[in-house]
Amino acid sequence: MSLTLVKNSSPLEDIRRRIADAGALILDVDGTLAETEEIHREAFNEAFVEAKLDWHWGRRVYKELLRVAGGKERIRAFDQMRRTGPPVSDAAIARLHRVKTERFAALMADKGCPLRPGVKALLDAAIGRGQRMAIATTTTRVNIDALLAPVLGQDWETMFAAVVAADDVARKKPAPDVYIEVLSQLDLPGASCIAIEDSGNGLMAATRAGVPVLITRSLYFHDDSFDGALAVLDDLSELFA
Ligand code: XBP
Ligand code: MG
């Protein structure tokens, strides 16, 4: 999908118009709505300490590991990279990830994590237009509540016509599954919607489902390749400048 330029309009004006005209806005969570990955990283490290593992994920290794979508898959990928000792069992990975999810909720409740610039304005504008919104994420469902309840209120889910998370589909991004499920719940063709994503994996997932993508660059994925995106913004406040 390429950007269609309207006569005398700037690409940004065109993006604003396409957003306003979309059948629905489909939003990624981590990195797009908020810079959550440092909190995920801290939660993984706390789970490793609790399990008495001598593992610690610094920023550099976490950036590599973020190529693997999904916490359990990420732990397995790291275990395979170490190549020492017997592989960690599925049950142990599930246990580690359960503790990680608990730690993530506790850290969120403790420190909180603000929405990124422009996100609230985008949500408010969509609500003002009566436009539907949806969530398509590869994080665990309870993590969405841990992030959004403090910033949007306990009833945040009523703002969204569909919320699809990792547990709801067979394959995580870059597979298109979360987007295909969202589109089926919305009963809309992909081309009529806009996805907002921050990563190359997210771009690929949405594109494979036929959804045009607007990128908002995030901390860990700012240097990803975003070929094929409608546009790449530093953050969503550019839409309201
Ligand atoms: C990002 C992810 C997630 C989180 C960790 O999802 O890949 O795996 O890093 O969450 P998205 P879990 O950008 O699609 O929102 O440990 O719950 O998997
Ligand atoms: Mg993301």
UniProtKB/TrEMBL annotation:
Pfam entry (one): Hydrolase
InterPro entries: CbbY-like (IPR044999), HAD-like_sf (IPR036412), HAD-SF_hydro_IA (IPR006439), HAD_sf (IPR023214), PGP-like_dom2 (IPR023198)
Residues making up the signal peptide according to the UniProt record: none
Keyword Amino-acid biosynthesis part of the UniProt annotation: no
GO molecular function ontology, one term from the record: hydrolase activity
Keywords per UniProt: Hydrolase
Alphabetized NCBIfam families for the sequence: HAD-SF-IA-v3 (TIGR01509)
Protein name (Swiss-Prot/TrEMBL): Haloacid dehalogenase-like hydrolase
Protein species of origin: Bradyrhizobium oligotrophicum S58
